[in-house]
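Q: Can someone sanity-check these two? First one:
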Amino acid sequence: MATEQVLHMNGGTGETSYANNSTFQKNAILRTKHIMEECIIKLYRSTSPECWKVADLGCSSGPNTLMVASTTVKVVDAMSQTLNQDPPMYQFFLNDLYGNDFNNIFKSLPDFYKRMEEEIGHKFGPCFISGTPGTFYGRLFPNHSIHFFHSSSTLHWLSQIPKELNSEVEKPMNKGAICLTKASPPGVHKAYSEQFQRDLKVFLRSRSEELIPGGAMVLSMIILDQNHNTINGWEVIGAILNNMVSEHKVEKRKLDSYNISSYFPTAEEVRQVIEEEGSFNIQRMEKIIYDIVESVMETSNDDSFIHEDEDAIGERQARTIRAVSEPILKAEFGEEIMDELFTRFKSKTIQLNRVKKLKGATLVAYMTKDT
C-alpha cells in the first residue's frame, strides 16, 4: 500500500488516539519555541505585511495543531504594539497527508478563536485557518505566497520506502529489521540516506518557490546523535516483531520484506543537504538533547510526573508510539496483533528505563530566503 495512504496518526479522541497521546510532539515544539519566536520577530520587522501568511507542515491533529498559530498571533500582536501599528490579518494553512483527521482540527477552531479573543482582546484581527492536504515533498502553494513555514517532528518521514529495499523481494536487504539499524548492511544505510537527501532537497526547493523574497522557515526534526546514544523506537518495535515471529504470531516473510519509511539523519547530514541544495541561508542551527521519559510526560511546576510509577511511565511511552505507528503497522501485520505488540513495547521500555536514561535528539534549523 502506498505510503501516503497509510501514513497518518491515529484519529479521533479515543484512548489510543494521537489527540490524547501527543505530549512528545508538544514538548518538541515547546523546546524550540524560542527560535520560532526569534524568527517571527525578525521577519515581521522586515515585512510588516497586511496579511501574515503562515503554513504549518505536518500539522497532524489534536491539541498541538494550533500551537504555531497561537504563538504567531501572540508574538505579532506584541510586536504590533511595540511598533505602534495595527495588527495584521492572519492566514494559517494547516498541511498534512490526505488521511489526516482534519475534521478534528476544524471542530477545535471555535475554541481557538474564543481563546485568542480572551487573551489578546479586541485587537485580535481577522484570522483565517484552512486545511491544505497533500505531501510536502512537492508544491503546495502558489509562488511567493507564504511568509513563514514551520515543521516539527515530521521530516524523518520519507516520501517512500527506498526503492532498493522494495526491489529485493527474494533476498531482502534488511532481513529481520523494519528500519535502519547498526546491524543493517551498508547498502541499506546508503538507500535510506540517499532517499532522505532526495526528499529534503525537493522539500527545500518547493518551499523556496513558495516563500516570499526574504521569507523564513523553522524546521525541527528528530535526529540520531552517536555521542549521546539516542534511541530509535522503531528498533524496539522491530525486536518485538522478531520475537513474535519466533512464536509464530507474525509471518517471517512479512517481517523480512517490510521496511518503514522513516529515517533519522545526523545533524551533519542535514546541514550538508541544506548547503548543497542552496535555496536557504542558515541563520541558526541548534541540537537539543532531551530525556525520553520527560518528553512523553505532561510536566508542571512541581514536576509531578517524577512521582509516577514505572508502569504508568511505560504505558505513556507505549501509547505515544502507538498513536503514531499503529496505522502503518496495522496495514502490514494486521489489527489482531496490535494490542499485544504495544503491551510488549511497554514492558520493553520499562526494562530499558531501568538500565539507563533514554535520550532523544532534535535538530532545529532557522533559515531565510534571499530578498
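And here is the second, same format, sequence then C-alpha cells:
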Amino acid sequence: MSNQIIRDHTRRLLVAKYESERMQYKAISRYKNLTNQIRYEYFLKLSKLSRNSSRTRVRNRCIFTGRPRSVYKLFRVSRIVSRELASKGYLIGINKSCW
C-alpha cells in the first residue's frame, strides 16, 4: 500500500473522531451574542486540535493505486482503474462501449 493511502486513511479516521467536537467549537466561536473572551477560548481550543482532524485535509484517492486526480467519489476508484474493471466485467451493469 502506498504511503499516501495510509496517510489519507488516518486523516479520515481523525476527522470522524473529532467531527462533533470540532463542530461545537466552531459554532461557539462564531456565535456573536457571546462575549469575546468565551469566543476566543473556544477558538484556541479549536486551534489546539490536530490539523489532520480537519475535513479539508482529506484528499480523495484511488483505493487501488493512490492516484489523487480523477477519482469517482461513489466508488473511490480512479478513471483508469474503473475502465480496467469495466472492461474485465467486474463492475455490474457497466460495460466499456466500443464502435
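A (reply): Looked at the second one. The chain has two domains: 1-59, 60-91. The mean pLDDT is 88.
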